[in-house]
Design goal:
Length: 210
């Protein structure tokens, strides 16, 4: 345990490969019943501060692995979302975020990856209302004719946020737009968001959109 503590303490300075290996090992140890959950969250907190975007991605992987294993029940969900927000909101603030087309075209690969990571975790895991509202607004503008409102990099996140607020009406509209388009980026992203929404009120039949 002392060695685990030592590794966690320096996780914010580890190279990406070592950070990922540490995260994978700790998560496996937790799943095997040999490690308490608190250490997972301590490591995630440290990795989120690592300047290497690959190491930051390992922090997200820890939280995703914990959630996907269904350890977060309905009572814990608000606290889990708040924790994800604490980790990734400062990261997104540091990189900046604008969903408009080409807004971050001049950024380097590391900054772009860090922005994508933090935005995805905040929008989905953290359920950040302000971010999802901004993404949904950009999607609405894009789908109603303003191509500059939304960069293709944010299609999936923005369409997910759009469907969250627009329900069945939005699902029909988005699916119809997708089927009428031959854009190889937009079409699968839009249909994927409709298919993955997992909400009964978004369920549509082919006849409804043809």
């Amino acid at each position: 345990r002392a060695m685990w503590s030592s590794l966690i303490a320096q996780a914010d300075r580890l190279p990406a490969g070592e950070a990922q290996a540490l995260a994978d090992s700790l998560l496996a140890s937790f799943r095997a019943g040999r490690m308490e959950a608190s250490r997972l969250f301590a490591l995630a907190r440290k990795l989120a501060r690592n300047p290497d975007s690959g190491a930051s991605d390992a922090a997200a992987g820890l939280l995703d692995g914990f959630n996907q294993a269904e350890f977060v029940d309905a009572r814990a969900a608000p606290a889990y979302r708040a924790y994800a927000g604490k980790l990734f909101r400062p990261m997104l603030k540091k990189t900046g975020f604008d969903p408009a087309a080409g807004a971050h075209a001049g950024d380097g690969a590391d900054a772009s990856q860090r922005r994508r990571l933090s935005a995805a975790r905040l929008a989905r895991g953290g359920r950040d209302r302000a971010l999802n509202r901004r993404l949904a607004d950009a999607a609405t503008k894009f789908l109603t004719g303003d191509a500059s409102a939304l960069d293709p990099a944010w299609f999936e996140l923005a369409f997910d946020a759009y469907l969250e607020g627009s329900g069945l009406t939005g699902a029909k509209f988005l699916a119809g737009k997708a089927l009428a388009s031959e854009d190889p980026v937009f079409r699968p992203a839009a249909l994927g968001s409709v298919a993955a929404s997992g909400r009964k009120k978004n369920a549509i039949t082919p006849n409804e959109i043809m």
